């Protein structure tokens, strides 16, 4: 097929990704839910708790001692943020767990269709028309100019980095805009570690997903492309090494507590985290 990844010259990848996400933008949530059987929601919840285990104490609201000096908000950048899945979870967690609304998320995405869907979605939330959430059209590999060096507290990218032409370029941009001590969280499809489960998963993704794409979105090629892009993405330790090469401090090159990554559902999805020194 013309979406067959290996036939696409590298420089056309962004155009291709653009058309893939335009064709899926409106059915994006439905597709995510049906293809992952709703499990992507749990992955995203876990991911957001792990990148935002707490907020700086200065940001916690204390109703008994309202501060008079304005506080600098906690600034998050959710790159490839699409329809706002991660951004809204970040804001909800800050508000529900830490009673904090001094937190802002800017969503950057390459696809206007996804940004439009995101705006529609935010219009139904209490963050609508507040400085807490904003949308910017832009590329992860060279972030929009108004995002300054050393300005971001938390950088997230969920299920977006595998579509980018240059992983090192994305990571070095992330490093540049983060404050020293700022954190990066990358959520992406990983490599399934258990050999039997891996076989079942491959079977599922190469046959079932493009068929579902055809039935639900009338488009099997885009979904074929998504499956192939998952296959091509580096393994968990390889990606952790790329983060280190970009300058991030990570845990040890292994999975789990104290490690550079956490696998979800046996590595179908993986969260990598790092800190800018
Ligand atoms: N983060 C959302 C989520 O987890 O549901 C959306 C993920 S969606 C699978 C991938 C997103 O990455 C799309 O919205 C696409 O437009 C965006 N994207 C792809 N390449 C990009 C790039 N180079 N820069 C910024 N966004 C990009």
Rg, nearest Å: 19 Å
Taken as a percent bin, the fraction of beta residues is 15-25%
* CATH architecture term: 3-Layer(aba) Sandwich
Return the domain count.
Answer: 1
Overall geometry:
globular
Describe the structure.
- With 277 residues, the chain is α/β, with parallel strands linked by helices.
- It has one domain (37-191, 235-276): Vaccinia Virus protein VP39 (Rossmann fold, 3-Layer(aba) Sandwich), CATH 3.40.50.
- It is built from nine helices and nine strands.
- Strands 1, 2, 3, 4, 5, 6, 7, 8 and 9 form a nine-stranded mixed β-sheet that branches.
- Helix 6 (167-177) links the parallel strand 4 and strand 5 (178-189).
- Helix 2 packs antiparallel against helix 7 (195-217) and helix 7 runs antiparallel to helix 8 (220-232).
- The longest helix has 23 residues, at 195-217.
- The protein binds S-adenosylmethionine.
- Residues 17, 21, 79-82, 85-86, 108-111, 114, 139-141, 158-160, 163-164 line the site of S-adenosylmethionine.
